[in-house]
Amino acid sequence: MRLIMIYREKSEQRAAAEVFLHDFKYQTGHDIETLDPDTPAGQTFIVAHDIVEYPTLIALGPDGTELTKWRGTLPTISEASAYN
Known about the structure:
alpha+beta, 4-stranded mixed sheet, 3 helices, globular
């Protein structure tokens, strides 16, 4: 499974996203992939997954199917770690 955090680095949501990423790494020992929605790859991804709020944390299965998504409000570390 994969966890991907989509957020804009030049936004007011940046701090919340980066604190979550840091805390997740500290508590679980695992990293979460990040994706900038303003890159070509990011644009393709957000269109495919209907992402319109930031930050968004998305969990993908081994075959790339969407398992769950948290938009705007991030989950707890324990909720997210269930998908890591």
